[in-house]
Amino acid sequence: MKLWMLFGALAVAFPTLPAEINRNKNRGRGSMWWGIAKAGEPNNLPPVSPAAPHMDPAVHATLRRKQRRLARENPGVLNAVARGANQAIVECQHQFRNRRWNCSTKNFLRGKNLFGKIVDKGCRETAFIYAITSAAVTHSIARVCSEGSIQSCSCDYTHQSRAPSDVRDWEWGGCSDNIGYGFKFSREFVDTGERGRNLREKMNLHNNEAGRAHVSSEMRKECKCHGMSGSCTVKTCWMRLPNFRVVGDNLKDRFDGASRVMVSNSDRIRGNSNMITSNSASNSVHGHREGPGRKHRYNFQLKPYNPDHKSPGAKDLVYLEPSPAFCEKNPKLGILGTHGRQCNDTSIGVDGCDLMCCGRGYKTQEVVVVERCACTFHWCCKVKCKLCKTKKTIHTCL
Ligand SMILES: *[C@@H]1O[C@H](CO)[C@@H](O)[C@H](O)[C@H]1NC(C)=O
Ligand SMILES: *[C@@H]1O[C@H](CO)[C@@H](O)[C@H](O)[C@H]1NC(C)=O
């Protein structure tokens, strides 16, 4: 447990915000697409036909014009985006399960944001939401390409080794997950509407890019041996996406060490952060149109708020303002508060009762939980369990 985490958790919302942050309250509808994660759930959008979710008018209403065009021109992507959005929610709630802000989502209603009003604030939590959703779309699209369920992309077959073949003991072969396509598609789809015109849009763009970079950089080579009884006379290798949990863990680390930034006087060209897309250019995103200024959208360098800190790197998360305390319910800010949350009475971390309950105290109860236990495997193929009652002590915030 690092000390600053304790202080971070005790931070109170900054009373007066810099003017630019206030002006950016109206962020546009750039992030409304998150809502398609809940399409088809009760109280949400009408059920979506898995074969053609892009045909559904309610789904269309959550998308911007450009996103609709991408969906239309790349059949199959909308399912992958919905899958990605769900993966992002699951991962976010896992990473934040023991924190005051626990990444809860709302029933999606048209015109409302899936993660609620917290994203109106340029705080760390918002940074994480943008990064994890952008990463999840990148991941999901790259995987779906190699599964063959999108017409406009396929496995990435572009890997080529530079070493001469008599030096290598393996060959590129097989089906690589198409990170190049996933990365480009995520930029086109997720970044729609974020033009980098103001600080908040730059924050969103930076965190979206960071999310994608965390997927790219965890790509790993996987190999398989061929030849008589596994003799490995021929070895073929391909690039495989990371398990999304790895991306979530890494982004959570970046959340803990996120950089607070402010406007830079000179928008310098950022160094090398765009290299990731260059080496796997297989398949192009249909509906991608090069417009004026588009190339420069990612070429900015955010300045650290504290001049003694170093500038954020491409994989760092950035934020503009301190987080609210998340202690008390505040519907205006979309905060649920921590009354009734479970806490750990022996932990001194953010899940501990002191911090979780914001010093209000907690109550302790003995509860009987029924769990599956003493499971046995029966040939073949059943697992039989008993139901056991165990007593547990739980603590909940007052
Ligand atoms: C998050 O916490 C709220 C109470 O603050 C609780 O109602 C909700 O079920 C929690 N959500 C998740 C996903 O854990
Ligand atoms: C509570 O926190 C302690 C110390 O961090 C930890 O060892 C323990 O596993 C936690 N208990 C639960 C139920 O999470």
From TrEMBL:
Locations of Polar residues compositional bias? 270-285
**Gene3D superfamilies hit by this protein:** 3.30.2460.20
Which family does the record claim for this protein? Belongs to the Wnt family.
Give yes or no: UniProt keyword Protein biosynthesis.
no
Q: Where is this region: Disordered?
A: 270-293
- Kindly give the SMART domains that the UniProt entry links to this protein: WNT1 (SM00097)
**Record protein name field:** Protein Wnt
The record's Gene Ontology cellular component field reads: extracellular space
Signal peptide bounds: 1-19
InterPro entries listed in its UniProt record: Wnt, Wnt_C, Wnt_CS
Q: What does this protein do?
A: Ligand for members of the frizzled family of seven transmembrane receptors.
Q: Which GO terms describe its molecular function?
A: cytokine activity; frizzled binding
Q: Name the major location.
A: secreted
User: Taxonomy-wise, where does this protein's organism fall, top ranks first?
Assistant: Eukaryota, Metazoa, Ecdysozoa, Arthropoda, Hexapoda
Q: What does the UniProt entry say about where the protein is found?
A: Secreted, Extracellular space, Extracellular matrix
> Which Gene Ontology BP annotations are present?
canonical Wnt signaling pathway; cell fate commitment; cell morphogenesis; developmental growth involved in morphogenesis; muscle organ development; neuron differentiation
Keyword annotations from UniProtKB, A to Z: Developmental protein, Disulfide bond, Extracellular matrix, Lipoprotein, Secreted, Signal, Wnt signaling pathway
